[in-house]
Amino acid sequence: SRIGDRMIEPLKRRECVQKFEDLFYKKCGNTWAAWTSGEEMRKHAGKFFPLEMDYGKDRKANAAKMEETLEREAHEAVTQAELHSETVALLKTLFNADMYRAALLEYDIDTQQMPLGKL
Question: What values do phi and psi take at 83, rounded to 5?
Answer without folding.
Answer: -85, 155
